[in-house]
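Exam revision sheet. Question 4 asks you to relate a sequence to its structure. Input first:
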Amino acid sequence: MGRRSDQAGTFELLAKLPQQVVTLARLEYENAKREIAQKAKRGGIGALAIVVALFFLFWAIAAFVAAAIAGIATVWPVWLSALVVGVGLVLLAAAAIFAGIALIKRGIPVPEDAIGRVEEDLGAMGEVRFNASAAPQADRAPRAPSMPKPGEEGNWR
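Answer key, structure tokens:
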């Protein structure tokens, strides 16, 4: 059974293998870089939310100071309003801190997708068997062939 003229032979395919492995590694590296950049961006947004919370907290402290001064100077309305504003700013700061912490925890830059693809690639490479090791030996029970025979349809890896 001959091969068609548009099909590559075994030696041609083996000659292409090193370049394909290098290309695969380069692409996975680029995917990992892109994934880390996306997760770092989310972490940066979380850090920005914490900075905003600290900004509100700074003004909340100023409002509490104003409330204490107004409380001493007058009897009720001025310091009470300053106290209410200060409590509102503290609540805003707390909400921003919790949102920032949640975004930072969710955005730890680990390229999980790229790691999964590399593990799949390594698993596929581990399944490759050379002709000498695929032949059943006398001391082992013969195993079902994992590759189709020539002329059969199947997954030719």
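Marking note for examiners. The two ends are 20 Å apart (CA to CA).
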